[in-house]
Amino acid sequence: MTLPFVPPARPVTGEDEIEAVVRVMRTGQVAAGPEVEAFEDEFSRLVDGLHCVAVNSGTSALHLSVLALGVKPGDEVIMPSFSFAATANSVAIVGAVPVFVDIERDSFCVDPAAIEAAITERTVAIMPVHLYGHPAAMDAITAIARKHGLKVIEDSAQAVGAALNGKAISTFGDAACISLYPTKNIHSIEGGIVVTPDAEVARQVRLLRNQGMEERYKNEVIGLNNRLSSVHAAVGRVQLGKLAGWTKQRQENARYLDAHLRGVVVPPVAPGVEHVYHQYTVRVGAEVEGGRDGLAARLAERGVGSGMYYPIPIHRLPSFQRPDVRSRVSGELVETEKAAAEALSLPVMPTLTQEDLERVVAGVNAL
Ligand SMILES: Cc1ncc(COP(=O)(O)O)c(C=O)c1O
After folding, report:
1. Which of 14, 136, 210, 344 might form a disulfide with 128, Cβ 3.0–4.6 angstroms?
2. Which parts pass through the membrane (predicted)?
3. What are the tens digits of pLDDT across the range 138-187?
């Protein structure tokens, strides 16, 4: 008998999300409106009451934050190369220069010492990524930013609900960007949120997402259409109500995997960190036959999915080799290259059954 495939990740969408969509569709107000405002207000409770502006993707949240904070062509923004391309795209698309630095071995997040070494007179901002749901070293990063007069834009796409020393992730920077893509810890089908402590930055993002208008046809700045619809907001509101339970379940699944996996390095958690396990990412060393890719292939044969985030660091992507795209690498990206070769994300989503978890463990330990 073939057992059902355990996917690496699966969006969870319940009947109540479907009912919320129908409810909003029946109101007739399906574009932006009170439903979006309610979502922003409710999300704001997760992030110490800071300003929240909902947009149509995590990428838009990053792009509009970069614009709202006044990043200009030629300005440098320091970030890890070990991330999803959206992190760097949001900077390169405005003609600014992503400066790629190395990560810390344990957290997979940007290394503060590498940030400090990369600062030049052109540096205007730091963009840490809370990769896999593990917070970056925000105390060190915000101290560097203060010392050098730099902005901080948190890429919190993967870290909704995470915290560091009891302080919510997304409340450390001048702006923070959430993704609500279906496989994230909560989703709104597509969507994103900009979180900021600064009322003027929030106003700029609101203008930018709506063609530069606050008042209809009195466009104040050049803007785009990056609005979230009420239908998407309705899904997000229902999901938000489920976040705490799902996070707990992800953490319990992670604890089970930590306790039972053999032959791989389970994800370390730094002191004071509330890890929300968007991904449960192990390191597979060369001593495992076929290395990381070999393990992934053998897991697939046993019906266990896994994911490689990210096999090619951003600085080596073809899009960043183009002569018309400016970027820079600072220092040796030794840990970045190791992580790109060794990181393997195993299923950890809240809907896994005990049998699924046992199959993941059996699959890895068989090797
Ligand atoms: C680290 C990171 N940044 C940004 C994004 C972009 O988010 P979205 O897919 O919602 O545009 C993602 C999502 O995949 C991500 O993982």
Report:
1. 136
2. none
3. 999 999 999 999 999 999 999 999 999 999 999 999 999 999 999 999 99
Burial of 88 (0-12, 13-18, 19+ CB in 10 A): buried
**Would you tell me how many other CB atoms lie within 10 Å of the CB of residue 262?**
10
The response to whether residue 129 sits with its C-beta less than 6 Å from ligand 1 reads yes
Q: What is the position in ligand 1's atom list of the atom closest to the CA of 278?
A: 16
Question: Which residue has a Cα nearest atom 12 of ligand 1?
Answer: 157
Cα 120 to Cα 9, 69, 238: the distances in Å are 40, 19, 45
The preferred substitution site among 81, 156, 181, 277 for testing ligand 1, maximizing ligand atoms within 8 Å of CB, is 181
319-359: pLDDT as tens digits: 999 999 999 999 999 999 999 999 999 999 999 999 999 99
Topology adopted by domain 243-365: Aspartate Aminotransferase, domain 1 (3.90.1150)
